[in-house]
Design a protein that fits this description.
Structural class: alpha/beta
Number of helices: 15
Distance between the termini: 44 Å
Number of strands: 9
Oligomer: single chain
Shape: globular
Order of helices and strands: EEHEHEEHEHEHEHEHHHHHHHHH
Number of domains: 2
CATH superfamily of the largest domain: NAD(P)-binding Rossmann-like Domain
Strand order of the largest sheet: 1-9-8-7-6-5-2-3-4
């Protein structure tokens, strides 16, 4: 499989977006970082928010011009930094057949485009710029000059200028220093959803709770179990990020290394691989997309019910109790 092309600062021309009207829709973690980074490098940027948005005061305090959601149709470049499940309604209400000129719409995740949740009109070029981290990291690394890498994707039917503009935006928010990785909406959508469900969010939380609960079930006090599990995750996660999984394991004690290698043989077997296949197919087939759309329409009732079960779990109770006492490891 060929490696993805990685673009650097020399491949980007910020002049492609200089003077264009840029609207960031939403002012959460990513929206704030996009808006501030674009402003700080001299771009004409504003934020579109609801009149009742809790982010309104923060945007004004940051010195960012604020407009209504309906005014986004006047922009040349529209960056959607609102939750994924709000994209379709916003597009239909505020953008579709509302603009009088060619526009670029920037998505920060690929799911709604890949799964055809939005019926785009011909006046809109659609691109993806997905930073590899939360907005706080994007802003912090911009200010430090280090930059945060990102994914870039362009729809097949986009105009020739779309890629140049995508590279210019990614450069302006500070991604070119760390690398702009070319991808597709499909690969970003499936990789993002499967990665967070099987490992980064669902897998990590589920494994943590399962191990904690097993220790307590076998007689350990909750505080002891907490200190042996939850309290040590940050250190090991940072080691994996820095050295890789094998590099992390090479740096722990021989006791931890030997036992962990044997445990991996027991845990990650054919049965586990089949469970991963089911999660992957749930994502890739579009079944999760259908579930998410239904949940959004119904107020996320099932999602809130499942979250309530996790909130009542002894591991969560221990984290809330013992985590507040500070780092004692």
């Amino acid at each position: 499989m060929p490696e993805s092309r990685v673009y650097q600062t020399s491949d980007c021309d910020r002049g492609k977006i200089k003077g264009k009207r840029i609207t960031v829709v939403g002012y959460g973690s990513q929206g704030r970082a996009f808006a501030l980074n674009l402003r700080d490098c001299g771009m004409d940027v504003r934020v579109a928010l609801r009149d009742s948005s809790p982010s309104l005061a923060e945007a004004k305090a940051d010195g960012i011009e604020v407009s209504s959601l309906a005014q986004a149709a006047d922009a040349d470049i529209i960056i959607l930094a609102i939750p994924d499940h709000e994209h379709t309604l916003f597009y239909d209400d505020c953008l579709k057949e509302k603009s009088s000129h060619k526009q670029i719409i920037v998505f920060l995740s690929g799911a709604n485009v890949y799964y055809d949740n939005i019926d785009f009109d011909s006046r809109h070029d659609v691109i993806l710029i997905a930073p590899h981290g939360p907005g706080s990291d994007l802003r912090e690394k911009y200010l430090s000059g280090a930059g945060l890498s990102c994914f870039l994707a362009i729809t097949p039917n986009a105009s020739e200028k779309a890629k140049e503009i995508g590279l210019a935006i990614a450069d302006a928010i500070g991604c070119s220093q760390a690398g702009i990785y070319e991808t597709t909406f499909r690969d970003e959508a499936i990789g993002d959803l499967f990665g967070e469900q099987a490992l980064l969010v669902g897998g990590l939380a589920g494994m943590t709770m399962a191990v904690f609960d097993k220790l307590v079930d076998r007689g350990l006090k909750p505080e002891h179990a907490y200190l042996e599990t939850v309290a040590q995750l940050k250190l090991l996660a940072s080691m994996i990020e820095k050295y890789g999984p094998a590099g992390m394991m090479a740096r722990v004690s021989k006791t931890a290394l030997s036992g962990s290698l044997m445990a991996m043989l027991l845990l990650f077997n054919e049965d586990f691989d089949q469970r991963l296949d089911k999660i992957y197919e749930f994502v890739a087939s579009g079944e999760f997309n259908k579930f998410l759309q239904n949940e959004a329409c119904n107020g996320f009732v099932k999602t809130r019910e499942m979250l309530k079960l996790l909130q009542d779990d002894p591991c969560q109770q221990a984290a809330e109790t013992f985590g507040r006492t500070g780092d004692r490891t």
